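Re: [ENG-882] Designed sequences occasionally contain unexpected residues at chain ends

Forwarding the minimal case from QA. Structure tokens:
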């Protein structure tokens, strides 16, 4: 990396200029698990003392870009992704349009009786059969979220028989000619439950961002899907589009 010229008369603190330069480099050239050069090497590169350099690194730590590991140095963390939640936001289309590779794996697919919460959101009778599809989504090969989809079995039997992965909403659009629209998203930070932490390759003590969403048929506003998504909280920054 080339030397960065510090402008000491700009009015911006020197440590802030260094932090901004390192932030750009981390996002452009480093991947999760890489280590930054030693503090002394960086101090020499920027022609500052180690105290100033540490303040710059502190900024990166506060942004969640790096983590200090005692005796090892500053390790680059997974970069969080901005993910928009709006009435028409779709996982696969949203991320692939930004050059990300996505993968959706079906973990389980069952027909179960609708419990009270599911039946109310889908406006069906409690105990009516619903298709429960659990999918694991990966971005660039790294676990990103798990989604529990609940869809009435009636009129949607093709999901039970033919859906085996990929975008479920695209499958519904292509096979049934229905376009879905999100009408509600409730976001809560909770600890992972069941086998979520295992599938997401994360600690059971780190929270997930749980988003409960309702999707309706865009033509007649009838509920089609109730979904519960659990995002790795260290990999995402949710943006709410009103």
């Amino acid at each position: 990396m080339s030397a960065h010229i510090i402008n000491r008369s700009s009015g911006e603190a020197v440590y802030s200029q260094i932090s901004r330069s390192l932030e750009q480099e981390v996002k452009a050239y480093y991947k999760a698990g890489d280590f930054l050069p030693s503090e002394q090497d960086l101090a020499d590169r920027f022609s500052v003392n180690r105290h100033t350099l540490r303040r710059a690194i502190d900024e990166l730590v506060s942004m969640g870009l790096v983590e200090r590991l005692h005796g090892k140095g500053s390790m680059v963390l997974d970069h969080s992704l901005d993910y928009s939640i709006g009435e028409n936001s779709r996982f696969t289309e949203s991320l692939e349009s930004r050059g990300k590779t996505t993968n959706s794996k079906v973990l389980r697919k069952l027909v179960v009786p609708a419990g009270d919460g599911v039946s109310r959101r889908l406006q069906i009778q409690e105990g009516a059969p619903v298709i429960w599809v659990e999918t694991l989504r990966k971005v660039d090969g790294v676990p990103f979220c798990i989604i529990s989809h609940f869809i009435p079995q009636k009129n949607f039997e093709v999901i039970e028989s033919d859906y085996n992965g990929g975008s479920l909403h695209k499958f519904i659009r292509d096979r049934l000619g229905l376009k879905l629209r999100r009408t509600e998203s409730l976001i809560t930070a909770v600890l992972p439950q069941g086998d979520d932490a295992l599938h997401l390759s994360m600690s059971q003590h780190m929270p997930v961002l749980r988003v409960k969403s309702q999707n309706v048929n865009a033509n007649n506003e009838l509920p089609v899907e109730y979904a519960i998504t659990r995002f790795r909280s260290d990999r995402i920054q949710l943006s709410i589009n009103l």
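QA comment: On inspection the terminal residues look reasonable. Residues 14-29 form the longest helix (16 residues). Proposing we downgrade this to a documentation issue.
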